[in-house]
Amino acid sequence: MAITAPPIDIGIPADQRQQIADGLGRVLADSTVLYAKTHGFHWNVTGPMFNTLHLMFMDQYTELWTALDLIAERIRALGFPAPYGGTLYAGLSSIPEAEGVPAALAMVRELVEGHEAVARTIRSVFTTADDASDQPTADLLTQRLQIHEKTAWMLRSLLEG
């Protein structure tokens, strides 16, 4: 006997919850691709800045890993399945995969571009969440935006000089 789950009534209509969940799915995909790229760069960075970048990338991918769960759980709280899988993420993400193993500063440049891309994706979802008075999603997006903008700034600082 199949059990039907009760409808969700959290004060946000189903169509708005779907739009927010779809947007969060894009944020999740961008964040997952950026996580994988950052982790891969951590493994493969070489050169005079090895130790600095190796440790910095580790801090960044660890932070991203934790964020993936928060984003996916918010999608679930809105009543929708969280997207997963490489093919699905490739279709949803605005961040391209790295080609080969770039030089250390090229890695930094790619990560700057990745964090900026996630920030743009977050901004595109924020209005939908705000219009729906979805404060938990808006709060999550605000926190994520702050982290991605700060990380992009820190990485850009390595490229100056």
Can you describe this structure?
Residues 23-160 form the Ferritin/DPS domain. Helix content is 74%, strand content 0%. The chain contains five helices and no strands. It has helices at residues 14-44, 50-77, 86-92, 104-131, 135-159.
Summary tags:
Ferritin-like, Ferritin-like_SF, 161 residues, 5 helices
Give the gist of this structure.
The chain has five helices and no strands.
Tell me about the largest β-sheet.
Answer: none
Order of helices and strands: HHHHH
By DSSP, the count of extended strands is 0
Relative helix content: over 70%
Mean pLDDT: 94
Number of helices, counting only DSSP H or I runs of 4 residues or more: 5
The rounded Rg comes to 17 Å
Low-confidence stretches: none
Question: How far is the N terminus from the C terminus?
Answer: 67 Å
Quaternary organisation: single chain
Beta-strand proportion: under 5%
Structural class determined from secondary elements: mainly alpha
Shape: elongated
How do the helices and strands line up, and which of them pair or pack?
Elements: H1 14-44, H2 50-77, H3 86-92, H4 104-131, H5 135-159
Helix pairs in contact: 1-2, 1-3, 1-4, 2-5, 4-5
